[in-house]
Each structure stands twice: as C-alpha cells, then as structure tokens.
Amino acid sequence: MLVLPTSTESFARREAGGKGFNLYRMSALGLPVPPFAVLGRRFFDRYLASSSLGERLAELLRGVAAARVAPEEAEARVRGWMEETPLGAELQDWVERAYDAVGRGETIAVRSSAADEDSRAFSFAGQLSSFLYVRGLEGAAQAVRRCWASGFSARSLQYRLSNALPLAAIRVSVVLQRMIDADAAGVLFTCDPAAGSLQRFVVSAVFGAGEGLVSGALDADTYWLEAGTGRLLQRQLVHKAVALRAGDSGGCRPAALASGLQDESVLSEAQLQSLWQLGKRLLDDLRTPQDVEWAIKDGALHLLQTRAVTSLPRNLTGYPNLWDNSNIVESYGGVTSPLSFTFALRNYRSVYLQFCEILGVPAPVVRDMESYLGNMLGCLHGRVYYNLYNWYKLVGVLPGFRHNREFMETMMGVREACGSEIEERIRPHESWDTWRGRLRRFEVGLHFCWYHVRIQAMVDRFLAFFDRAHLEFRELDYRRMGSDEIFATYQRMEREMLGQWKAPIVNDFLCMVHFGLLRKLVGSWLGAGDSDIQNDLIAGDGQLESAEPTRVLLRMARTAAADPPLRQILVETPAEDLMESLNQAPEHHAFAGQVRDYVDRFGFRCMNEMKLEEIDLFGDPSFLFTVLKNYLRAPAIPDPDQEQRRERQRRAEAEQRVRAALSGWRRVVFFWVLRHARKAVRNRENTRFARTRAYGVIRAMFHAMGEDLAARRALASPDDIFFLTIDEVAGAHHGTLTAFDLSELAALRRRAYTRFAEEEPDPRLLTRGPVYWGNPMTTEQQPVGPAADEEADLRGLPCGPGVVEGVVKVVRSPRDDLQLAGEILVAPRTDPGWVPLYPSIRGLLVEKGSLLSHSAIVAREMGLPAIVGVSGLMRTLRTGMRVRLDGRRGTVKILPS
Fold first, then answer.
1. Mind listing the pLDDT tens digit for each residue in 422-458?
2. Which fold has domain 184-308?
3. Which of 171, 194, 464, 660 has most Cβ atoms within 10 angstroms of its Cβ?
4. Other C-beta atoms within 10 Å of 585: how many?
5. CATH, domain 9-178, list 3.30.1490.20, 3.40.30.120, 3.90.1200.10, 3.40.50.150
6. Interstrand relation of 290-297 and 184-189 (parallel, antiparallel or unpaired)
7. 250 — alpha (psi -120 to 50), left (phi > 0) or beta?
8. Is 0.85 topped by the overall pTM?
9. How far apart are CA 305 and CA 128, in angstroms?
C-alpha cells in the first residue's frame, strides 16, 4: 500500500521515512502541501528481495563498515546495480498508482525519504537525491530507482559512519509529489540558526525553482523577521541574473532573469507575512525550530517539505530552567556524590514544606508547590545548583515579591537577576492572582511578621531542643550496628530532629529581608562613599559559634608555644602520627586531652563538611594538627580575645559614623533594621552550626552503613555507598529496589563522576527541555583583563576591610598542601571547615560567595581583609604571584613578582 494523505498515522510513521512522514503530518495539519504519495520502505525491501541485490548489498556494507571498501566505491557499485535491475511488473504497477495519485500528466518531483532522515538528531540534509520536473511514468520509475540508490551515496554512508548509525538499517522510501513550477521559492528557518536565536525567523528566496538556493548555485535575497510579530527587521537584497526553470527533458535549467527583476526584492511584504504565519504555525505545532522549503505559484504559497533544525548550538525550545551555584557552591563545592546530593534534595524539600506550614500557606497552594519544593536543587555534571525559578516561586508566597526577590539574590550572591521574559515561570500559584489570593498572601505576611517578633525565643528553644536530640543520636556507636538498624535510626533522626527545623528556616528568610534592607539603606542614606560600612556594622558580634573552633585552636597553639618540648613535637612530627605521639608521651597527656576534647566538641568540622563522603576529625584528626603547625610556625600567634576587642572597636566606630550622618526618624529606622540584621545573621550562623553537627552524625551513620554493606558483599567497598542515592539506600533495606547489583551501579557512577571532575560547568546556566541533552554546560572562557579604570585586575564583593600586599597561595581542595605562613589564600569557595586556616593568612580571596556567606561573615568577625565573588579568580592567579588586596574597595591588583 502507498502512504497517502488519508493514511493512518501509525502506517505513515512506519513506512514513509523522515521526509514523507513530515509531509503527512503537514497535510494532516491542513497546511498547503501539494498532492503526494509515498512508496514506503516495504517497496524498497521487495525490490531487493526480487533480485540478488539484497545479499550483494549486505556484503558490500559489511565491507564499508570494516573499512575494506571505500564509500565512493560502494556508491558506484550500488548505482550500477540499480540501473541494471528493473522494477518488475508488481513494483511498476505500484509506481503507476502513486503517479496517478499525484496527478497523471503533471510534472512531478521525486524525492528520497530515508527511515531516519529529518529526525531531531539527524537531518541528512543534502545527503539523498531529489529529482525535479520529472515527466511521464517511465521517468518516475527511473527516478524511484535512483532515489533508492542515493541512500548508499558516499556522502550518506560517510554521514552514517560519522554518527555511528548502522549501515545495515538503510531503508529508503520515495516521495512522489506534484511539481510546483514556482515563480519564487526558498527556505524559511523558524529561528536564526547563525545566531542561535529563537527571536528571529530567517527567509532566503530566489526567483524560479528553489533548487538553486538549496544547492548553493544561486545567490538569494535574505529577510529577518521578528519571531513574535512577523515585523521585517532587516533585508539583504542581491543581484539576481538567472533563475532556474523547467528543463526541456526534465530537471532544471538556468534561464536569464528579466532585467527589471534582477535587483528587485523576490518577496513582497504580504508574502513575507504569509511565510511568517506558516512558520509560526509549524513552530507551535512541532515545538522545535524548522527548516522549511516553500514555493509560490500565482500568488499561492505551497509547503514542499520541512525538517527539524539540528545545527543549533543549544536547545532553544522546551520548558526553561535557570541554574545558579553562586551560593550553594560554598556548601557543595566541586563534584558532590550522589548520596550527598539526594540527601540534600530530600532535606530541602522537608525544610521548605515546614516553612510553608508555619506561615499558614493554604493547603491547595502547598499541594501545587510540591511539584517544585522537591526540586529546589539540580545536579549538573556532578555539581549542585540552585533551580532558581523554583526559589523565586517559593519567595513568591510572601507579599512584596519584587523586593524579596532582590533580597534573595543578594543573599545567594546571584550576579544576574532573572529577566522579565520569564515572569510567568515564577508565579507560586495561579490563585495568588485573584483578590482572594492576594488576601491569602497578606495573611501569610502577617504570620511572617508574627514570627519576626518571636524569632529569638523560637531560635533559643530550637537550639536547646537540638542539643538534647543531637546528644542522643551522637552517643550511639554505629560501627557496632547493622546497616538496617542504622538506617532505621537515620529515619527516626530525620523525623524527630530534621523534621523540626522551622525556627532556622524562618530566621533564614528574616536574615534575607533584614540584610537586604540594611544594604538598601546604606546605599540610599549613607551613599556610595561609605559602601564598606555595612561590613563594619555587622562585624564584631562575638557570639558566632562557627568561629569558636578556631578560637579554641588558637588558645591551644598559644599553650603549646609556651612549652618548647611540646612545640617541637607538634612542629616536627608528621600530622598523621601526632595523635599517637602525644598518647605515648606521658608529659604531654594534658595536651592530648585537650586534643581529644576538641575532637569531641568539633570533630564534625571538616572542609567540605556538608558532603557525607568527606572524612571529618573523628575519622582523621590530621587537619587539626596541620592547622596547629601553621600557627606554631608563625612569628606570633594571634590572641583571639584581642581580635574580638579590635572588631568591637571597629563596629563602634562604624556606629558613630552612622550617628553623625543620620538623625531623626532615619536614624531610628536604620538602627532598628541594623539590630534585627545583626540578630538574624548571628542566629543564621548558630543554627547552621547546629545543622553541621547534625550532618556529622549522619556522616557517621552512612560511613558505618557502607562498611556493613561491604562486609555483606552488597558493595565492593565501603565508600560505594556514596555513589548510591538516598532512595537506593532505603530500597536496599525496604526491599523496593527493582535491580540490586549495587556494586555495578556504583562502578558505573564512579566512572561518570571521574569524567565530571575533569570539566567545570558554568556557574549560571539556562537549559530548555530535557536538561542533560542539547544544553551546553560550558561556554568558552574569555581571558580576564584589567578593569575599566585599570586600577584593578579583578573585582569582587568587599567583605573584610584592610589593604594587604603579599604572595598568593592557591588551595582548591582539602587534598592540597595546607601549609600556610602569612600568604593571601586564594580558593574557589570555602565553608566553615576552612576557618581554622584564617589565622595563618594575611588575606582571603574567594571566587564564589555572597555577603552572607560563611567566608564573608567569619572574615569580618576575625578582622581579615577579604573579598568574595571574584569572577575569574582561579583562572587568573597562581601560587607565588604577588597581589594587592583592597578589602574595602573589593579590588585585586597583580603586582610584579
């Protein structure tokens, strides 16, 4: 049977090939497709089966695949075989039926249509043959055989080899279509393929048949249309001396163009509008940019064929997702294991459901929010990203969305706000747009204000509750428990502790609002000339638990410095042996006790401490001793109490500057906002310290589970557990795994993550449609040049005052050399586990981060000149370079070595 416009879709999809099926779809949509009929792939199979061609072709293609036969030689052989082999009576009859369906007596076009042609992945553009102005039944029959032969052209075979397409799968259908003897013809792109943009359509047009344009033989007029309106944006007219017309014996011939047309526009405004409307219809129906061949005859527009554009550099269609890791990279820097990512994903969902619950967000809205609260994060090439559109939706449950959105971007360190073109993507719920919805949002705002008044009591109760609950889970010896018992304990901890996280998350939003307000007031009321004053006002709190481990280490170092034999042991003994050396030296048992007490209090602290796969001080105290060695090698060990007094003095001086600059109601408002911003920042740091302690217990749980599962031979090694997802670990204990070769699964992911570690995705990405396909994760890095004023080579967010000059030491990960002696530390990102390194450095430069990042807050608290959010930092600076760091202006100047 032939494929006709009246055929069923399943039959057309199976038989017609790419080009033929596209014509079928266009006809079904009611578009102006000239009459056509398709000799489906079964006719090609019958042709091969009716002779010895099938066996000879198969042997020839095996030779091409094995590189024994060149594609050019294969093309010549196949063409010769098919010219010598007639169709046979039955196939000749079917060609006649197809010819009659198109219109006996009409000139026709005969086109090849391969089974996998014109797909989204492979277009085969220009690989297969078409024959125009074919006359008579015999001409049609000959063109059919030539189309079949073109499936084996050298270009087509090479294209398949290059794209790893099987040669044995070649099947060629043939389209017979009424020929349009065009007055004008050309190509319409429903995108701008050269610019990679969906904002414009591009039309190329010639007088006469479009074959001259497709083959490149003729120059064409080009038009750019605005995609949304069809408005003509630009046109480029060329001199056109000839046009292609029907040849006397078929095919096309060049014919001189009338002089009056040679420099005239091929298309009128009305014809361009018709083409735009056709393109808009195709784009709406097919949802992907199209490459459309068209012809105009006697004023009527005809659609000849269409295919997906496969040459675009990235996806331009599909639902957009905006990814940004400017802030979360501080907690999850570099490649993060599947277990850590999925644990975080699960935890974020739980915490923000609690946030909605405590604010009284209506149940229908919460049900709608479930679709994105479980997807607040993304995993791209093993890195953790915020899914920003979902965060904007979350912030949208509060009144004052535009201000809160700006405050959120400040807290996250987002450098580029989302554009107005995606406003519809970030509405939290359609019911908010009604008057009832606005009333509900107002009620949510009242809840938020109520918790603003009660927040300190909430945080105090939370911290007291956390201390009790944490102690219970911490005291269990997980290495003496089976993995099933451990996982049950983890679930109980998740329910009883992590499920009670309302106070920290409400405070986080208060911190976002008050810190954002403070920044606005500083900019509006104090002016740009005192832009660093916000850092001075926030510094010197003295009650940040995240800075306490470093203060304890400094006191320990000062104790050791006063005892020369102890100092000698600490400086000269390798860090990995020091704990044992102290235990075996009776005269130093007291100091060994201090070390054990430190590990007991702060053993959960480590660099990359949010990652469950990391080894903390409980597992290996070497980092503690590396830090003590740095302090003891320094000319002087800082006095943490003196540092605190200095910071309080700087804070008091900043307050005096505000009092001198403001008076009346402005001074009252400013200090009210400042008081609440300080409180929120302090509470944020202290509740995050609690989170880190909880993660320390969970880390111990999963390390112990990995050991037990490896002992049971469920895993090849204990750390395989970190290459599983949290749901897979649960499934291993609940019996819900659909396949349970966990070792093989972990090995597969190890290989993938090894590849991920070799490339760094961009910090901000817009993807469309399925995230991992057709969306480039990296762009070409541009060299970093001097700033416009040439006073600085790099700029970032100033967060620790002071100007220092010194040598740079680049530290990318905990596995680098951490020996420091007064250098300027350069890092891609930091977390609280890096803080013990700060007393050994003169300044801090961090590529990622915001004014509310741990790097910024603790650097301010310790009086350390620091800049965060320095774009291009890691590509520009190398260990040993000299720089000047200005922590007030946020500038870095590279100095002669």
1. 455 555 555 555 666 667 767 777 777 887 788 899 9
2. D-amino Acid Aminotransferase; Chain A, domain 1 (3.30.470)
3. 171
4. 14
5. 3.30.1490.20
6. antiparallel
7. left
8. no
9. 14
